[in-house]
Amino acid sequence: MAAPAEPLNLDAFYRKHHSFAWGPALAAAGTYAVTKLPKVAAYLDKNSMTPWGMEAVHYVAFAVAVAYGVHGFCVVHATPDKQIQSFDPKNKYKEHANKEEAITPMKTYAERENTQGAAVRTVAALMTSLVYYVVPFAPVSQSWGAFLGWLVALSLYWDAHFFVAHKYAHEIAPLYKWMHKKHHERKQPDCFSAYYVTYQSHFILEQAVVLMFAFAGLPVDVFRWTLYYGTLDTYLKHSGYEFGDMKLPVLPLTFSQLSTILGFYGLPFGFETPGQHDWHHEKFFANYALSFTYLDRLFGSYHPGRVPGQVLKDHEAEIAKRVEADIAKRELEAAKAILDEIPELKGSPKSASGADSPKSEESTAETESVPARATYTKLSEATVADFEVQGKAFDEYRESGQIVYNVRIAYRRRSNCGNRRRRNHCSRRRAIGPIGPQSSPNALS
Ligand SMILES: [Zn+2]
Ligand SMILES: [Zn+2]
Question: What is the pTM of this model?
Fold first, then answer.
């Protein structure tokens, strides 16, 4: 189903969706007010915690630029062998009069629908991150141990928080409608689907977590790393393509290997892949987590998702099957047309054959010959190339008169022998002797 129309520029978007203005304004005002409470102010001062300030602006600029960057990368480099989900309209093939014309490549990434509207909402959602301007963070980590400790704690908590809120959002209908339905308008996501969200969803699934950890003393470098890397990761997870096996320039690594190295602490928890989140968008249920798979496995909602490129193989097999059926149908029609052209088969078969002659009884076994039947069957099963070769042979034999014999038998069998009422007639027809020069019934086999 196509997504509802979205405003195609930011002015129109803000006029229609006021929550993207007053929501973050309220969040920022509330956060600022809390930081000015005497006890909170003293706590922040004691721990040298300062607001993120202009870094929030830098992050928004980065996130918007990367959204368009990853989108552009996908337009150029997303190939069908990396594609996770089919997005060819169902039964498109049937609409084509010429089936061979319908053997077109699958739709490209660039042909996805409502991209402009999704891009506008993405920018609006990212702009709400300006809230972080007033959010206080602790100074950079004093040791690798501290960095890693905070990183693991933030990653695991955020994943669990996302899992629970996301699962409830799917299981409680009013909550789904209020918070998460917008994100699921895009069953075949692209990069701009990652932040194709309502503000309330963005606040609950991201900003609430950041605020909680910030006031708990999150070092600013851990926040930077998580937010910047997480933003890139979520675009790729929504791209609809798996770029994991893509070789990185200069480094002797694939993108997937680099991600594993950078996120080594997540290995015991299993990494959520683009294929798994794509499955969530396609099927609606399963794979609720943000980063790791262990919670979905634990609660029975895990699904491995699609294998990248499988959909292309299925698509090609389906097209081949349909083309083959179409060719077989055309061959059958062509064979019938040729049969109709044979003068001996027009009018009464009886008069053309002299079927009641005593000699005809002697040739019964010969006229029932399997090769004569096989010839007709082969025509209907052969490829176009086979048909052309066989057609030449067919013409030659017709010239010699031998073809009349074989084709006539096949034609009669098809026309009469399946009909109960005409079974006796058919038996009599089997006694028809050959027309034209007598030769081997294997001539066309
Ligand atoms: Zn969902
Ligand atoms: Zn999603």
Answer: 0.71
